[in-house]
């Protein structure tokens, strides 16, 4: 009996380990963007996987971004997904692109399929395994500024009041696209595609600090 219980516990532990392992990324940030990492040492690509995985049973993958491509936006089936249609997750994903030295989509294009984009807030519980930088909550990103120095970090939701349904997030010129995706889902994009006039070259970083 005791052996059976121990065996069952071992199976449960193995299963839980496999579930938690489904938050993944193989993206590597350039050393000059180490300030984007949170106090846990997680780069924005891994933080993106955590927050976007909240709405997919804790499973999400943020792949390394190929040269000359950007991450794809939410598709029509994800139009009401609060984990994807938020400026917080968008900022993290854009930072993931930036720290790889690559491009990202304009917010206006990224959110085009979202029926109710969430500005400056992330309404779902943030996983205790991560912490979200304060700059991700800003209603707008500065692509010309370096890291701010005095913002605190926590895993709590930071409310930002806003009545607008648009944002100043933008880039200029053109680029091509790729994607993040759930580990197991038929509704998410999983291949590389092209998009004209909706992304551009990176000029600096995003505003720093953590929350």
What fraction strand? 5-15%
Number of strands: 6
Please identify the structural class as seen in this structure: alpha/beta
Q: Mind telling me the C-alpha Rg? A: 18 Å
Return the average pLDDT rounded to an integer. Answer: 71
Fraction of residues in helices?
A: 10-25%
Provide the number of structural domains.
1
Could you list the spans in which at least 5 consecutive residues all have pLDDT below 50? 142-152, 154-177, 183-197, 200-211
Question: How do the strands and helices of this protein lay out in sequence?
Answer:
Elements (H helix, E strand, L loop, with lengths): L1 H19 L2 E3 L18 H10 L6 E3 L6 E3 L15 H13 L4 E2 L1 H4 L65 E3 L20 E2 L11
Parallel strand pairs: 1-2, 3-5
Antiparallel strand pairs: 4-6
Helix pairs in contact: 2-3
């Amino acid at each position: 009996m005791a052996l059976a219980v121990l065996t069952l516990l071992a199976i449960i532990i193995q299963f839980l380990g496999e579930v938690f392992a489904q938050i993944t990324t193989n993206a590597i940030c350039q050393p000059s963007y180490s300030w984007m990492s949170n106090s846990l040492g997680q780069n924005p690509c891994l933080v993106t996987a955590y927050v976007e995985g909240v709405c997919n049973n804790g499973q999400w993958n943020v792949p390394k971004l190929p040269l000359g491509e950007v991450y794809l936006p939410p598709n029509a089936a994800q139009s009401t997904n609060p984990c994807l249609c938020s400026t917080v997750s968008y900022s993290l994903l854009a930072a993931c692109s930036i720290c790889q030295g690559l491009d990202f989509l304009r917010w206006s294009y990224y959110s085009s399929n979202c029926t109710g984009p969430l500005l400056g807030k992330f309404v779902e519980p943030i996983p205790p395994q991560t912490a979200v930088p304060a700059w991700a909550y800003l209603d707008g990103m500065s692509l010309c500024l370096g890291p701010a120095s005095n913002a605190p970090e926590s895993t709590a939701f930071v409310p930002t009041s806003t009545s607008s349904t648009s944002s100043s997030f933008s880039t200029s010129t053109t680029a091509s696209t790729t994607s993040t995706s759930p580990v197991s889902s038929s509704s998410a994009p999983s291949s590389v595609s092209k998009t004209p006039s909706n992304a551009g070259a990176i000029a600096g970083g995003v505003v720093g600090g953590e929350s």
